[in-house]
Input
Amino acid sequence: MSMGMGGMGPSGRAAAFRGVDEGRQRQLNAQAPEVVDLRARVVGLFRPYRGRILLTTILVVVGAAIGVVPPLLVQSIFDQALFPTTGGAPDLSLLLRLVLTMIGLFLFSAVLGVTQTWLTSTVGNRVTGDLRVRLFDHLQAMELGFFTRTKTGVIQSRLQNDVGGVSDVLTNTITSILGNTVTVISALVAMVLIDWRLTIIAVILMPALVLVQRRVGQVRARIAGQTQESLSELTSITQETLSVSGILLSKSFNRQRAESERYRVENTNQVRLQVRRAMSGQGFFGVVQVIMASVPAVIYLVAGYLIVGGTGVITAGTVVAFTTVQARLLQPLMGLMRVALDLQTSRALFARIFEYLDLTPAIVDAPDAIEVSAAPGPLGRVEFREVVFRYPDAAPTSRPTLDGVSFVAEPGQHIAFVGPSGAGKTTVVYLAPRLYEASEGEVLFSGADVRTLTQESIVQNIGIVSQETYLFHASIADNLRYAKPDATDAELLAACRAANIHGAIMRFERGYDTIVGERGYRLSGGEKQRIAIARVLLKDPPVLLLDEATSALDTVSERVVQEALDNVARGRTTISIAHRLSTVVTADTIHVVDAGRIVESGTHTELLAQGGLYAELAVEQIAAATIMGMETPARPIEGS
Ligand SMILES: Nc1ncnc2c1ncn2[C@@H]1O[C@H](COP(=O)(O)OP(=O)(O)OP(=O)(O)O)[C@@H](O)[C@H]1O
Ligand SMILES: [Mg+2]
Output
């Protein structure tokens, strides 16, 4: 199956400058995903709305049946009321009744039409909405690794553009199919009744048209797949570039023009695909139109031959009636073909949606998972036993990120990890709450393997202050209440006091109602961290994981944050990661990690005495501290 190489032109160029892998990934995505039983699954989406669909069907059929009546009434109006065939003056009372019936029917079918539209649009939009929520829920259940390897924009695009793209099909298909089928069948029946031979002539080309239509549908489905893929790329560019981090990056490297160019190229691709999608099948419909419109002419011709040939049963009335009914067939038939085409086109979109719904989260609770409260060990005990871990997308031949890591954090203890950048410290923090799964060995929480516990109950007992603080674009109070939605104002204040951030918040013009901006950009690094600490305090978990909460700060802020952390750590198991050894000197045990292994363990004094990697790090930092210590008193002297 060759997927339109035309689509690779501009996007291929863009991929080349962003990395080959992405280009390959994209080529893979452009293939319509194979999803089994697509049709059955789409039909399945409507199952909860069976009642409404049945009602819609009845309304459509009743509406179609009513549509037949007015012409009959017209006949009666003429032949019985206006110009009675029995002769005599017009029968005014009959006329009045017939006219009122006719108006009544029109009123009734208008009401039917509105009800039917209401039904189909509620069903269609609810099915779309259900699909969106299902996808959202499912994506949330995906493991952390899925989000580190998938672009946010690509995920967003499936939710918005793909689900949005099938919305029309989900809304309009049912009525369109029902309504048009009823009309087509009634017209066909009428045609057969009038003259079956002419009917055969009128529909003889239909099978061929249906075959061509299927082929057109396949082409269009392919274009639709490419269109959605390009749309997802556009969303990614927007999402990456027009965010605070993205715009800061592009502005600080003067890349706005390059980003505009990237957007422009992808946009041109999108426009081209949209035009192709709109145009595909138009030629086909042109041909269908010509054929259908020519049928009456052919009928006249055939009638002529039949009459001359002596069969002679064809009257002028038959020909006129037949061609009139046949003309009524054109619109609904075209309508049905268009629906069939739309359905085929939407296959590509449905396939993309179901592909995501079929992703199985790599980390799920075991069916017999227990709550942490039912675990055998003491609450707050964390243990690693010979843990080996490799990131899912790392090369299998590379050395593991964590290699035989074992340690115990007893309840209430402070365990610290130090070591060079990239050693695997953050990875330890990810494994404890089972955000990633150990490849070998065991991670235990409260004495039970985390794989036997429900993840929700583990996370309930763990507070994480991560290396990169994330705040929502909302007020400080809202961000804090994320940890505990029902927290009182007094609780917020207490948490912020303990986290040493209350004073700073009160200095903001709007205090706790200050909007922190996208990702918390409105705040300084240290303020963000202390809000994150206050947030964890509100959660009040027995285990605390602190990932380098102080590395980005100067000594004064560090002391403020450190004080906050000491407040938080009291009475909890704390696993902290730090580059600055000053923050871990009081730890019960310090593990020195290098290249995924724990190379030294002990207290600050023990490790210094060992004269290993820790002592080396300490000497470097003492040297740095000395320089800073000399600078500090020097300043006032210079200044005075
Ligand atoms: N999602 C990922 N996929 C693949 N490899 C990863 C991923 N995250 C981290 N790594 C790799 O795993 C190794 C350990 O990373 P980790 O973040 O644990 O280091 P760290 O000790 O916290 O470093 P730092 O002190 O700089 O924060 C690094 O070599 C890193 O490149
Ligand atoms: Mg780290």
Q: What stands out?
A: The two ends are 80 Å apart (CA to CA). The longest strand covers residues 382-389.
